[in-house]
Structures are given as C-alpha cells and as structure tokens.
Amino acid sequence: GFGALTDPNTRQTKNIGRFEINNFQMAKHEARNTSQQGIFLKAARFNHSCVPNAYFNWNPALHNLTIYAIHGIEVGNEILVNYEYQNAYERREDRRQSLQDSYLFWCSCVACKDGPNLDQNEALRATMRDLDARIQAGAADAPTQRQNIRRLLGLLDAAGITYPQNAELYGQLAESWKGLMQQIDPREIQYRNECRMAAENAACSRLDAEIVAVGDDSTEVRDTLRLIGSLRP
Q1: Who's near 132: CB < 8 A, 6+ residues apart?
Q2: How many CB atoms lie within 10 A of CB 39?
Q3: Taking the CA atoms of the chain, what radius of gyration do you get in angstroms?
Q4: Does pLDDT of 38 surpass 90?
Q5: Which of 54, 60, 101 is nearest to 81 (CA)?
Q6: Mutual orientation of helices 118-137 and 142-159 as an angle, nearest 10°?
Q7: Which of 49, 95, 215, 222 has its CA 20 to 30 A from that of 110?
Q8: Residue 162: pLDDT over 60
Q9: What does the DSSP assignment read for 113-138?
Q10: Which residues contact 104 (CB under 8 A, 6 or more apart)?
Q11: Which residues, in sequence order, are CB contacts of 133 under 8 Å at separation 6+?
Q12: Neighbouring C-beta atoms of residue 224, cutoff 10 Å
C-alpha cells in the first residue's frame, strides 16, 4: 500500500514527503492555474529512464492513469518511464541534478551511465537542444522552421526518444503546412493540395504517435482527429 512507497525521510509532516515523491499529475485547470495530483500504487513502482520504453498519462475520459509501451519490450525487461520528459534535451548532469532534487536518486540509466557512448549521446542531445531552441523561438522563415523540425525528429529517432516530443513536432509541422495552404491563392489548386497533403501526413504521424503512447480514447487523439478533419476538403 501507500506506506510501502519510497519515503524521502525528510522532516515534513508524516506521509507528505511520500506523497510528493510518488504522485502523478492528473487534471489541469488552466483558468485557475491549478492541477490535481494523485497516487497510483502500481504506477508508482515503475522506475525511471531518460530513454523510456513506456509513457504515463492521465486520461480524463477514463478518469484513470494509463501507461502504454512506446517501444517493444522483451519478456523479462523492465518497464521504464521518464519522470521528467520535459528535460529530454538537457545535459546529463542537469537531468541527474533535477531528478536528485525531485526524486532523491542519481540517474544511472542507459543514457546517463558512463561508457563509450556517453560523449556521443551528450553531443546528440546538445544538437537537439539547439534545434529545439530555434524552433521554439520561431524566428526562422517557415521553410527553415520545417527543416529544423524534420531534423529534430530524425535526431529523436536516433536517440531512441519518442513521445511526447515527436507528437508535438508533428503537430507543429502540420500547422506550418496548414498555414501555408491558407495563404495560397485558391486558384492554385495543385499547390494548395500539395500543402494540404503535407499537413495531413504530418497530422497523421502525430496521430500514430498518440495512439501508441496515450491510447485511441485519449483527448490528445480526439484533438488530432479534429485537426485532420479540418484539413480534408
């Protein structure tokens, strides 16, 4: 039960520390700038990896936490999730320190442990970090922005990192092509159709990633289906 979960052994009120280190985020209330957290006893047992093979997500339609495999997991291998997927592009030392501060452990996953691939992995994440910064800044022209997105998607694949980063990038790519399509003279039917198809292909790639990671009954999938519907004539 709850009492068997990791306890940070701080001087906080009894069980508060245990809750803070094991809880999962649930519903968000943007208008009130608040969110809800909950304890899920089985999910709290999953360990962390900076290259996870599973993804956890709160599904409001099911009113439950879901965990889906995002890579093939062989029998006997551990199911691993990323506690801080928002730090995927960060340096090893920064990821480790953040995990130490929040969860009280020093990460030694495949991406963090010392070894012959460490320097290569760190260089790969540095490039991803740079590309992500350029994309988020939005300062480049649209063709360069799309090129940066495609390049970052390729690097994510090389690093074994998938959801949610890939879905977010496919969504940005779809919106970029959609924006271009809307700027084109309606009389240029072929060019508009080419942009529409590019947008739809990117949106479908986002949909595929979401179905794998969060399930076809998720709000993310419903939102992407609406995007795809808006692109079809």
Answers
A1: 89, 152
A2: 15
A3: 20
A4: no
A5: 54
A6: 150
A7: 215
A8: yes
A9: S-STTHHHHHHHHHHHHHHHHHHHHT
A10: 6, 8, 21
A11: none
A12: 24
